[in-house]
From TrEMBL:
Name of this chain's protein: Tetraacyldisaccharide 4'-kinase
Pathway noted in the entry: Glycolipid biosynthesis; lipid IV(A) biosynthesis; lipid IV(A) from (3R)-3-hydroxytetradecanoyl-[acyl-carrier-protein] and UDP-N-acetyl-alpha-D-glucosamine: step 6/6
Keywords tagged on the record: ATP-binding, Kinase, Lipid A biosynthesis, Lipid biosynthesis, Lipid metabolism, Nucleotide-binding, Transferase
Gene source species: Wenxinia saemankumensis
Lineage: Bacteria, Pseudomonadati, Pseudomonadota, Alphaproteobacteria, Rhodobacterales
GO-annotated cellular components: plasma membrane
Catalyzed chemical reaction(s): a lipid A disaccharide + ATP = a lipid IVA + ADP + H(+)
GO MF terms held by the record: ATP binding; lipid-A 4'-kinase activity
Binding annotation for ATP: T55, A56, G57, G58, A59, G60, K61, T62
Role description: Transfers the gamma-phosphate of ATP to the 4'-position of a tetraacyldisaccharide 1-phosphate intermediate (termed DS-1-P) to form tetraacyldisaccharide 1,4'-bis-phosphate (lipid IVA).
Amino acid sequence: MTPPRHWSADPAAPGLLPRLLSPLGAVYAGLTARRMARGAGARAGIPVVCVGNLTAGGAGKTPTVIALRERLADLAPHVVARGHGGRLAGPVQVDERRHVAADVGDEPLLHAAFGPTWIARDRAAGVRAAEAAGAGCVILDDGFQNPSVAKDLCLLVADARAGFGNGRPIPAGPLRERIPDGLARAHALLTIGDEDEQAAFDARWGEATDCLPRLRGRLEPLAMGLPWAGLRAFAFAGIGRPGKFFATLRGEGAILVREIALPDHAALPLSLLQRLEREARSAGAQLVTTEKDAARLPASFRPRVLTLPVRLRVADWGPFGERLEALRRP
């Protein structure tokens, strides 16, 4: 989806449309609260670490899951995700050689490149399958508003620049639930952005979120030895916040001839890609996309598109890091 413009309005001056939609937002948030009040869900025999957010749209959960998998590598972590955009209900372990994004979704396909990954619309069944397959812990991707699984740790992720938008629930704003309700169930909040974006988050949301330990992270590109400086790039991205990817490319020195922002998880049919390729060739430019979008490319087309991966860097994991260490204790 492409977030509506009114979702990013100043909370102090949200405009007419969010005010008109607020009753629907109250109903949405109330239904979420009722669902979460059902209880803690099924408890696994292994630790479950949940990565979630309070908003619809890109917050940075995918690089956060990758970073947590690396940090918990000695615990043999398995990732369990819903498989958004895929046709399979699961539980099924993602196999890069057998599955495509249309089967399991683009994010699980990306996660599978780093280690065992499961998709399951029934998250509790997915956790049980991972445990039976030998997982030492589970990283639950985007399961914060799902009460079917008891979580040992919950890490909320927010884009530091976007914050919580206009601070209102869907459809009046981007929130999946009321901010206090979500913060009450979390163990830490990770905001992702540069120093200026972190300062902007502090100014707008710092007081509302000071009840939680705060982690600050940033996304750093993996240049992979490619000569980005001076490269004429025809960039396209179907992620939550395409502008961040385009800014990263410019930061690496690429010359962006064209920026194509697609809806999050947008399908990439061969006809569209061939059209983009013709336009790029006419402009003397190279097609470039994100690592997540590359997972949705037809296999025959992938060699014709450059990818710029990014990785999350957190300078200090603080008290949440101590909680992660505690998972290793019997």
